[in-house]
Write a structure and sequence with these properties.
The chain has 255 residues and is of the alpha+beta class. The protein is built from eight helices and seven strands, in the order ααααβαααββββββα. It has a seven-stranded mixed sheet with strand order 5-6-3-2-1-4-7.
Length: 255
Amino acid sequence: MIDRAAVIAAHKSRYGVRLRDRWLDECATHLESELSQLGHTAPLHVEVQVRLVYEQVLHSEISDSCMPTLTTAPSVLPQDGARDVLLQIQEIVDIGVSRFTMWEALREKEDFEQRGIRPSYLPPPVEDEGVFTAAGPATQQTQQTQQTQGDGGQTEAEEREPKVPRSMIKLVLTDGVTLLPAIEVDKVEQLDAELPVGTKVLVTRAQAHVLQPIGTLCLRPGVIKVLGGRPRQYEHLTQKVRLEKALDALRQHQK
């Protein structure tokens, strides 16, 4: 049911990667089994097949699903004509904020969310008109809201909502074999230190500039695009856990 040749060609042209035959066979078998269980026996359009496999690639370990694409100096990025190349985030950190400051901000955010306070970026809840009337609880609620608003028009909950600092992002990208350091030169809105390890990104080779001889990729808008994904083996490596490990290592070093 899965046209392996078409799927391989599509991933090569769109994402600059060559899927591993063994992984693709296992992936296709899994997808075909799931489709069969759902009673779907009709042939799938090739674009649907590509999309199904692509979703599996995003959540896979890149060394399992893709052949390596990075080369050695003087040019780290592939020179095989591919416009873009898919890579995986192996490390991500905000180097403009101290680890302890970031850890404290994450702890405050976690505590805020656990208390069940509605974040300010969510729209206000829609109440039942039959329960909240102009003369009833709705009026009281409006008065309470007005009383809790500060000079900036924000409620106490919004004022208490902690903000995680954001400065300069540093990455370590990989094709599964070679590591490629990358640093933000101009702010890239999609990048955030909270992105999970294993996230897939697409680097545009024509826009990319690798500093030599240190081999560091300069990141700016148009160079990198976050695709997503979260391999199961990295689920435990949250940003808070990574920071705690780094702080523990620093304490051990200072002893």
